[in-house]
Known about the structure:
Structural class: mainly alpha
Distance between the termini: 48 Å
Oligomer: single chain
Strand content: under 5%
Number of helices: 5
Amino acid sequence: MVKNNKISQKDSFWLPIIYIVSITISLVVAFLILGPRPEGMAGKLDVSMLPTVNATLNFVTTILLLLGFIFIKKNDLKKHQFVMLSAFGTSAMFLVTYVIYHWFKVGPKLYEGEWVLFYYFILITHIILAALILPLALITLYRGWNMQIKLHRRLAKITFPTWLYVSITGIVVYVMLYI
């Protein structure tokens, strides 16, 4: 528990781990997507269905986030906890399938529509906030799990709209590229 702005011994253990895990995952994802691939990886696995899977996971995450918000407004803590952990789970599944897709496909799919500035605004803000959402979500979940309600609420006011934006813009990017 945090008292008088001092970090507890438990926090001083877990918060650095959350930061290290977040940075490590972000760097690994960046390397897997942008870094060199071994010869012959592209096309070795049919990943053509994964953009649809990813958009579906983003949609489910969006619904879960909205349900979590509704449940906490109704003071239904158990349902709130369940759907927020589920939202984290669907986001984690998204991350895994996203990395698999980018590892096995050949090059990025280019946007060919008429809304180029809008598309790149959405894409760039989505990418930046997606990198930030991992530590935000982990710390928010950690605070809630440990019943640090004041700190959880304060951080959730940033995490919730950011996570929601990332989920929705993930769907928008999919629609603009594939539909």
